[in-house]
Write a structure and sequence with these properties.
CATH class of the largest domain: Alpha Beta
Mean pLDDT: 95
Largest sheet: 4 strands, mixed
CATH superfamily of the largest domain: Enolpyruvate transferase domain
Shape: globular
Number of domains: 2
Low-confidence stretches: none
Oligomer: single chain
Distance between the termini: 5 Å
Structural class: alpha/beta
Strand order of the largest sheet: 22-23-1-24
Helix content: 25-40%
CATH architecture of the largest domain: Alpha-beta prism
Strand content: 25-35%
Number of strands: 24
């Protein structure tokens, strides 16, 4: 499928899609409870559905309504094959949970996830006394537990997602655990994990993100949890309005632990007119100037920030490109290639991207099935006189399945063509 974006502007009000990151954590923890939990306000992205499938195969029973889920925990295996799809969080988070079982389980992946390195999973689980065999550090993973020892030292410089899985699983084993972490990135995603755990009655002591002290024999209790709006997906809508238009997005909270709420800070820095009242963020076009920001701890903001910088006067600098290599694509390489094709001046310099606006031209782009690059390309063309054709546009289903329809309702002229 491909989408054509014509010259237009965004205007209106909508509700943010819910956070797939929080939903996946809530689903995983609900699996470990004894009783029924209710998860409300779910956006059914493909990543969320992958987490639900894994939880079901690990013994959870579910009842789905339109945008909520009743999930009853359990450990009676439905299948020994756990399909994680293309979700890196699903793979890293469920690996330590699968290690709680004494049967051999296989974690499978598809698409780009098959070629992404996950050496840290194998290394960590072996240290915990788990039998774990990978395909040279890549999926599939064959895992046989149970975890025998919860004390472990781990490198957190590539991703915090395995730490999320360890934090969720280790409280349920019989002994106390100490999780030592070096060079932790995306620290606020660990805060998200600890917050969701607390909602289900389990805690861990965070000692400055370098050590986590975890009491054993804790029990997750069934809970009712509302999934807040997703700052990652909403950042594309807010940037679109900053470039050309006005939008109000509800169900976004500034007290959220989600690191991508930093988009508000960047938009103000760039000169957009942005305000926050209760759960509503309003953004409208302003005279946009270059900005300098470190996105190391919020790497999912890189694509919308590149779109923003492509419409700013002067040279913008976004630091932290080392976080972009092992995403749905080599996100650094694809951003440079496709935005250069659009006419944007974009180059890497050490650990930063330098971006200057150019003369946007009509192009066809290939996002390499990367949902965030497809959405970033679409919003870059707000208010210009050219159109853009985005191939593989269905890739947005990974995080924001309603994206094309919602931006169309907000006034962006789109044409969907089924190949």
């Amino acid at each position: 499928m491909k989408v054509i974006i014509y010259p237009s502007q965004i205007e209106g009000k909508l509700t943010a899609p819910s956070s797939k990151s929080i939903a996946q954590r809530a689903i995983a923890i609900s699996l470990l409870t004894k009783g029924t939990s209710k998860i409300k306000n779910i956006t059914w992205s493909s990543d969320t559905l992958a987490a639900l499938s894994v939880a079901q195969n690990l013994g959870a029973t579910v009842e789905i309504t339109e945008n909520s889920l009743n999930i009853n925990g359990g450990n009676s295996l439905d299948s020994e094959i756990l399909e994680c799809g293309e979700s890196g969080l699903c793979m890293r988070m469920f690996a330590p949970i699968a290690a709680l079982y004494n049967q051999q389980l296989t974690l499978n992946a598809s698409g780009s996830l098959l070629n992404r390195p996950f050496d840290m999973i194998e290394d960590a689980l072996i240290k915990l006394g788990v039998n774990c065999v990978s395909n040279n550090g890549k999926p599939p993973f064959k895992i046989r537990g149970p975890i025998k020892n919860g004390n472990i030292k781990i490198d957190g410089s590539i991703s915090s997602q395995l730490i999320t899985g360890l934090l969720i699983s280790l409280p349920t084993i019989s002994s106390d655990s100490i999780l030592e972490v070096d060079n932790l990135v995306s620290k606020h995603y660990v805060d998200v994990t600890l917050s969701v755990m607390n909602s289900f009655g389990v805690s861990a002591v965070n000692k400055n993100y370098k050590q986590f002290v975890i009491k054993g024999n804790q029990t997750y209790k069934p809970a009712e949890i509302y999934i807040e709006g997703d700052w990652s997906g909403s950042s594309f809508l807010l940037v679109a309005a900053a470039i050309y238009g006005k939008i109000k997005v509800t169900n976004l909270f500034m007290n959220s632990f989600q690191p991508d709420k930093k988009i508000v800070e960047v938009l103000k820095l760039a000169g957009a007119n942005i305000s926050v009242k209760n759960d509503t963020v309003t953004c409208k076009h302003g005279s946009l100037n270059s900005f300098n920001i470190d996105a190391t701890d919020c790497p999912d903001l890189f694509p919308p920030l590149v779109a923003l910088a492509s419409n700013c006067k002067g040279k913008s600098i976004i630091t932290g490109i080392n976080r972009l290599i092992y995403k749905e694509s080599n996100r650094l390489e694809i951003l440079i290639r496709e935005f250069s094709k659009m006419g944007v001046k974009i180059n890497k310099n050490n650990n930063s991207l330098e971006i200057e606006c150019g003369n946007l031209k009509s192009v066809e782009i290939n996002p390499e099935n990367d949902h965030r690059i497809a959405m970033a390309a679409a919003i870059t063309y707000m208010g210009c006189n050219e159109k853009i054709i985005i191939h593989q546009s269905e890739c947005v289903n990974k995080s924001y399945p309603g994206f094309w329809e919602e931006i169309k309702c907000m006034g962006i002229k789109t044409e969907v063509i089924h190949d």
